Amino acid sequence: MAVTRMLSSDNISALAEELGVSRDLLYRWRGQFEATPPTDTRASGPTPEDPRDTKLREENSLLKRALAEKGLEVDFFKGALQKIAARRQESKGSGARASTTRSGK
Question: Measured on CA atoms in the order 16, 19, 20, 22, is the torsion positive or negative?
Fold first, then answer.
């Protein structure tokens, strides 16, 4: 019943709170539910899937992959910015002019 409600719900967090379980548990239940074969042994085979559902699943998969890549990019740039900030803090000196000579150009 929880998985059925989850499939039709727009806000999984609110549903999890209403049911008194964690979001992770709801997703785990959904995974188990989807992996369970139908209990009706009279069925001659799997029911054909709507082509729109297939297209939406493919698009969802692509979007999840793109989101994961963007997350990795964000993590990379955060790390790079932290390194730059750390180097700037290390290089802050007395504020005096550097002791290099001017070029003769």
Answer: negative
Identify the CA nearest to 16 among candidates 27, 46, 35, 49: 27
14 C-beta neighbours (distance < 10 Å), count: 10
| Cβ–Cβ < 8 Å for 35, 28 | no
The pTM of this model reads: 0.39
Instruction: For residues 81 and 58, give the distance between their C-alpha atoms in angstroms, rounded to a whole number.
Output: 35
3-state secondary structure at position 39: coil
Task: Choose the most confident range, by mean pLDDT, from 5-14, 22-31, 43-52, 78-87.
Answer: 78-87
Backbone angles phi, psi at 43, to 5 degrees: -65, 135
Q: What are phi and psi of 56, to 5 degrees?
A: -65, -40
Dihedral of CA atoms 69, 75, 80, 83 in degrees, nearest 10, equals -160
What's the token pair of residue 55?
């297209």
